[in-house]
Design brief:
Blueprint lengths: L2 H18 L6 H14 L9 H6 L14 H6 L2 H30 L24 H6 L15
């Protein structure tokens, strides 16, 4: 899984534990409520809740998510609604990019930016768990350096 999915799963499991306490058999009944609460919470990165990004409004109760009546659909200006949702997505994207730059700045604090050119000598660390065969068979003279990359 990717990191975002793991964070969501961890958050949902924490919410479930807080609600269920010792009634572990009731988790299946509580899941829709926990999911609704999660999707209604404003996220620090986007400054919106998931419901706002998808639907354009923040529902107060699950009944608010039921489909609109036929009369409301006919009178609804779809182009204005689409523009509103696009604007929300653009604002959320800008907030995500801003927070990504902030996280990147904090993560790279104290790191030196190194630029390597072809022909530069570099130290390559091959970890046992990832490069077992290369560690046993290769010697430094067999490694032509075309371009350098950081150890992952």
């Amino acid at each position: 899984m990717d990191g975002q999915t793991e964070v969501v799963n961890r958050t949902l499991s924490t919410l479930l534990r807080a609600i269920l306490k010792k009634n572990l058999k009731l988790w299946e009944e509580s899941l829709p409520h926990v999911e609704f609460a999660y999707n209604r919470a404003v996220h620090s990165t986007t400054k919106f809740c998931p419901f706002e990004i998808v639907y354009g409004f923040k529902p107060t109760a699950p009944i608010d998510l039921l489909s609109l009546s036929m009369q409301e659909r006919v009178n609804f200006d779809a182009s204005k609604r689409a523009e509103f949702i696009k604007m929300l997505h653009e604002r959320a994207k800008a907030d995500i990019e801003k927070m990504t730059q902030l996280y990147e700045k904090c993560a790279n604090k104290g790191r030196k930016k190194m630029l390597f050119e072809p022909g530069d000598l570099v130290w390559v660390h091959l970890r046992k768990d990832r490069f077992d065969k290369q560690r046993k068979s290769a010697t430094p003279n067999q490694w032509p350096i075309q371009s350098a990359s950081q150890d992952q």
